[in-house]
Amino acid sequence: MEDRKEALRQKSEKINLKISEAYEKLAAKLQSKADKAKSTMDNKKDGPNRDILRRRFELYADAATDLKLRHREGLSAADSD
Do 23 and 64 form a contact (C-beta atoms < 8 A)? Predict the structure, then answer.
């Protein structure tokens, strides 16, 4: 019985690690896209293209931040279990 519990615990930890890595990878990808949009936006003068780039930057940055916060909250909840 103990062997089954230990195997289940190890499998659960392995799955949690994969999920954690996926969260981090996606957050990094979104942050990279936000940085790229900001860099391109900074090189534009004015006009609708700059507004579109600013909005793209905001969306990517917000998504990356939200993902990072959810990930931290998930880790905190898992630690308290």
Answer: no
Torsion angle of the four alpha carbons 66, 69, 72, 73, in this order, in degrees rounded to the nearest 10: -100
Band the pLDDT of 78: cuts 50, 70, 90.
low
pTM of the model: 0.74
Average pLDDT in the 34-62 region?
90
Q: What is the DSSP string of 46-58?
A: SSHHHHHHHHHHH
Q: Both tokens of residue 60?
A: 């990517």
DSSP, collapsed to helix, strand or coil, labels residue 4 as helix
**Which residues does 15 contact at the CB level (< 8 Å), separation at least 6?**
none
